[in-house]
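HUMAN: Can I see a protein plus its fold?

ASSISTANT:
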Amino acid sequence: QVRLVESGGGLVQPGDSLRLSCRTAGIVVNRMNMNWFRQAPGKEREFVAVRKSEGGGTEYADSVKGRFTISRDYARSTIFLQMNNLKPEDTAKYFCTVVFRGNAYWGQGTQVTVSS
């Protein structure tokens, strides 16, 4: 059974950093394209970053390039999203997601609020 559990969100000030974690079960993270999405109030869910399967590299939304870094830890079956220089417009609920055997799996999300 595939499970995704996000953590690490919180309330921070502009310019601060946070590291989100997505602990997985039921998949091998190195063999999957692991994604982060986010959804702000009143807006549609949007793509943030992907860590592609072995050798596939990473991609980022233009709005986070140079500030966010996605990584994975195979031993801990965990995906991370390091977020630096956070801005108020980064305020959203962040989700990790994976497509496995034709099904999309999502975690419950973790809230990030950037406010002074």
